[in-house]
Amino acid sequence: VLRCMIKQLEEKDVDFEELKKNLEYTASLLEAVYIDGTRQGLDAEDDLQKLHSDGVPTEVTDWLASTFTQKARRPARRSDDKPKFRSIVHAVQAGIFVERMFRRAYTAAMPNQPAEVVNCLRDIDTWNFDVFSLTTASDNHPLQTLFFELVTRYELNSKFKIPISCLTWFLEKLERGYAKHNNPYHSSIHAADVTQTLHCLLLRTGLVHWLTELEVLASLFAAAIHDYEHTGTTNNFLIHTKSDFAMIYNDRSVQESHHISATFRLLQEDQSNIFVNLSREEWMELRALVIEMVLATDMSSHLVQVKAMKACLQQTDGIEKPKALSLLLHTADISHPSKPWALHSRWTKALMDEFFRQVRPVEELTTLEFSYVLCQSLVITFWITQTSPVHCPLQITPHIFSWIQVWARAGPFQNVILPVPAEEKQPQHMMLPPPCFTVGMVFFG
Ligand SMILES: Nc1nc2c(ncn2[C@@H]2O[C@@H]3COP(=O)(O)O[C@H]3[C@H]2O)c(=O)[nH]1
Ligand SMILES: [Zn+2]
Prior knowledge:
Its cofactor is a divalent metal cation. The protein is mainly α. It is built from 22 helices and no strands.
């Protein structure tokens, strides 16, 4: 059309109305072509798909996908790459040789476990496994002992050629990280408990037969590290107090992001890099799985996870392994209420103790926390002063007690004399007396 118009102009044979119509038509045509072109640019993933089928090497499309789209780079599984016979024989021979070497190294270096530890570990496949007994028997090293036991039981050490020196050093550092904040609940005992529970779930449900060895390794590893360097406070606390962690991780799964990041930074050190002999693809796959699993332990994703799994079970399509494993770790993480009472009650007390510790530093409290704590303090103080001997439905630990004292002194209760000055006198489980209940009703509705 444009060429035709140019010719008409040259020949000075121009109908003004016709020229205008033709120009409008051409402009709308060019606009349509332009918009279509932009859309094609937006469908980059489709184009990548096309490239893939056009015989472009997978490395190239993978790189394009990881650089220009939201798609994570999936480790390439080359089932169709057929190695030559000779290379298979060599690989198998070399593999067997190295595995034997690693097995021998482990057998030689395996510490002679005390009889009590061996005794505890007999129950490792059961739901009633007593992780507190293992803690005592192993001289306060439940995580090291348990993880080492599971890695060797599943023969992951020889399969992935995990150097024993690295494993020992890594586990030592891992336990130290869990001890960093001296948490009553989020300690290495909790990590050992969750790891054992996950192992029990994998075994008892038969899921272990559905997984590759790398997925088993990633799952056990994720469980062992899932609360590494936990600060003993909730994500909300970190966010509301504008903590460094909240600033680093932009208020998103703050604790969980730190557990993962700090662990992988620990693995960067040669001395503790237990995955040194994994191939690049294996390492990428393991890392992706560990990240997904640990991030899913954030309680704020609980409902979403349960809903997604329910929907997934109603469909005939297969269940995505990372999703299933994430839910499994989350289940193990909050499983203690389904354990025998002796275990569950210990965990509950430890968790309550940790929750109460969190509100102790007065200067870190937000207005909301301040009023919450003040009301709590009022109720508890009133109730303590009203009853003699003191009755309490929850065990008042030294931390809770000092917390009450702080508020009794700081608030309008300076003159209240607390009748429980010494630790020995602290009350045990008893019924909540009516005065407190009445005050509680008045204050909290
Ligand atoms: N209310 C309540 N919370 C729990 C219980 N057990 C564990 N949790 C919380 O659930 C969280 C799960 O992830 P974490 O282990 O980081 O921290 C855990 C606790 O904060 C429980 O019995 N009751
Ligand atoms: Zn946990």
